[in-house]
Amino acid sequence: MTAAASPRRLVTISSGLRQPSSTRLLADRMTRAAIAALAGAGVEVEPTTIELREHARDLTTMMLTGFPSPTVSAVLDMVAEADAVNVVTPIYSGSYPGMFKDLVDLLPEKSLAGVPVLMGATAGTARHALALEHTLRPLLSYLRALVVPTGVFAATEDFGESAGTPADAVPLSGRIERAVGELASLVVGRPPRSRRDPFAVPDLGAILGRAPGQE
Fold this sequence. Notes:
Layout: E1 8-14, H1 22-40, E2 45-51, H2 56-65, H3 70-80, E3 84-90, H4 98-106, E4 116-123, H5 131-142, E5 146-147, E6 152-155, H6 172-187, H7 204-208
Parallel strand pairs: 1-2, 1-3, 3-4, 4-5, 4-6
Helix pairs in contact: 1-6, 2-4
């Protein structure tokens, strides 16, 4: 089976707190660039964008009760079945918002293990640029994600590249192109991730923590 005949699921998680949001703007640019990079390598993409703010209350409810709503359950399944993930978050006080950490805490075990993940972040000033390396990369590495070497950080001024950009600076579009190229190189040649069968009979023994044959 060729790569072109095997669509890959690209899930973009946008953790912006406002609408409209520069975080969603960056997420959309990264998604479009990733689709183009993978298409150039002969890989068909099935993209999905999760606007996390729409699920913030349900994520909190699940944290408190342990029971997911149907929409949160669908979100967790999408991430767990993704062939590649874009994670894009705003930076506040040097770190990502709490609702993104809620999502991470609620993901099934090994959801991101071995999955190519591209990091992106936004902030009002470039002083937060290293937050990607100090906060987000360690978290994703702990989850055993295959984190793309280049992260994409965008300060407010990066969205107006034509004015005020230093001559020796790499523009945002160039940083996105480099990062998605690295993401594409990790996805190409890998088999599609196995999909969960929604009609499969669950292993009740595993759910209840009993060993096979144990009464």
